[in-house]
Amino acid sequence: MVNWKTKKGRLNKVLVAGESITIGQAVAIYTDGKVYKADADAEGYYPAVGLAGFSVSEGDKVEIVRGGVLYDSTATWTIGGEVYLSETAGGLVQIAPTVAQLIGYALTATTIAVEIAQITGDLGSGSVSNAHINASAGIVGSKLHTNAQVRYAKSEILNIDIGAGTPKDTAVLVPEKAITITDACFVYTEATAAAGATAATIKMGTSAGGTQIVNTTNLQQPKAIGSKTALSIVSGKVTADGAVFVRLTGVVATPIAGEGYIQIEYTVDDAA
Known about the structure:
The protein is mostly beta strands. It contains no helices and 20 strands. It has strands at residues 2-10, 26-29, 35-37, 50-52, 64-72, 82-85, 92-93, 99-106, 111-115, 119-121, 151-154, 158-159, 167-173, 179-190, 201-205, 214-218, 228-231, 237-238, 244-249, 259-268.
């Protein structure tokens, strides 16, 4: 037998159950706006927003209780111990799971003082997802963009007229974790002249002068300040502590205008 001795901090009753829920079970609001049994091991079904105020069937309106004293005649709680959301849908436990959300405290072996708290601990394999932050939260722009994890790096300014066939090697970055380069380009910070600039080339590798990342690519003319030359990625994989090198091969050291920098977009590979 489960019942409430007291209730407080109730949510509204206009929410609809997406499944059958028993009184006292932990519940969450899913992205479809309906109420389901909360589960600390199922993305989208945590955190719990409260416990069911009474038993309901799918399609019924739900009372969600966030505070009070819950009685369960079959329970064997350790008195004074903390009670957490379980990895079993709707359940409560006293041993904190990996995703630990405090639900309340055991007053006696059969009663819990319910005080719904926020999640602590590991939220999963890595990133926050749209199940955690989504448009239904009512926060403009809160839905995560597909490219939310894209990062950028750029080289020093490279002057193209350093001498015909003269190479200049630059280390752009040495990532601590493995990365994948998803895009690269040469951004012009000085306009190139109408002639001569195309003799300059760019290539990119994991060793000085290498082409593991980008094959030899000619710069363009004329190009305005703020424009760019796209660099085609051969392989974007860079190991942890592996360097990313850029080699500019220049043009004659005469007033052939043009300078710029390499811009790299990359993602950090899944981390343990």
